Amino acid sequence: MPQITKDTLIIIPARGGSKGLPGKNIKTLRGKPLICYTIDAAREVAEDIDICVSTDDCEIKNVVENYGLKVPFLRPTELATDTADAYSVILHALRYYEGYGVNYEQIILLQPTSPFRNGKHIKEANDLYSNDIDMVVSVKETKSNPYYLLFEENEKGYLEKSKKGDFTRRQDCPRVWEYNGAIYIINVESLLKMKMNQFSKIIKYEMDDLSSVDIDDEMDFQLAVTLFK
C-alpha cells in the first residue's frame, strides 16, 4: 500500500559501468538481481508510475522491465560517465517528467546497492521530512571517529587529529555519523537553488550496520551473501 504522497518521485540511479564490481547493479544476489531489492523497497511505499530507474544501460533496462517496472528513458551519454553526479541525474529526470506536465516537489533517491534497506526505512525517513528543510539523509554511526582515530598530515609532514579534542577513550568522543548511501529525501525547491553538497538544513535518519551495507566491490558482495545466509 503506497505511503508516499503523489508529489514525490523515487529515483533509482543505475549506471552501467562499475570498476569496483562490474555489472554490480544487476548481479544476482540470493536469486534475483541486486537492483530488484531496491525496486521492491520502493514499491512498498509508492506506485510504479512514481518510481524512475535512471540508467544508461540497455541490459539494466531489460532486467528492470522484465521485473515489471517500466524504464521511462535511457540516460544520455554525458550522464553515464564516472564524473556524472547525482545532482545532474536528478535534474535530468525532473526535466523529463516536466516535459509531460508532471512536477514533483520531493525526490527520494535510492541507490541500488543497498539490499537491506526496505520500505519501512524509507517510510520512517520520509516521516522526518518537511518542506522547510533541504534533505533527510540516512546515516550510520561511524566507527572511524575523527576525534580519536582519524588523522591528517600537517605542513611539516606530522600527523594531527582530524578533529581537535582531548579525549583518551573513543566512547567519550562526540557521536559522529557517516552517510550510508541508502536513502536521500530531497527538497526539489532547494535542489533547484543549489547542489546537494551546499545544503545546510539536513536531518539524519539513523540506520544500523546491517541495514547500511552498501555493495561497492566483491568483498561487499560476499558480505551480503553471507548476511543473507
Automatic annotation (TrEMBL):
Keyword line: Nucleotidyltransferase, Transferase
Matches recorded under InterPro entries: CMP-NeuNAc_synthase, Cytidylyl_trans, Nucleotide-diphossugar_trans
GO-annotated molecular function: N-acylneuraminate cytidylyltransferase activity
Keyword Nucleotidyltransferase belongs to the record: yes
PANTHER family to which the protein is assigned, alphabetical: HAD SUPERFAMILY MEMBERS CMAS AND KDSC (PTHR21485), N-ACYLNEURAMINATE CYTIDYLYLTRANSFERASE-RELATED (PTHR21485:SF6)
UniProt protein name: Acylneuraminate cytidylyltransferase family protein
High-level lineage: Bacteria, Pseudomonadati, Bacteroidota, Bacteroidia, Marinilabiliales
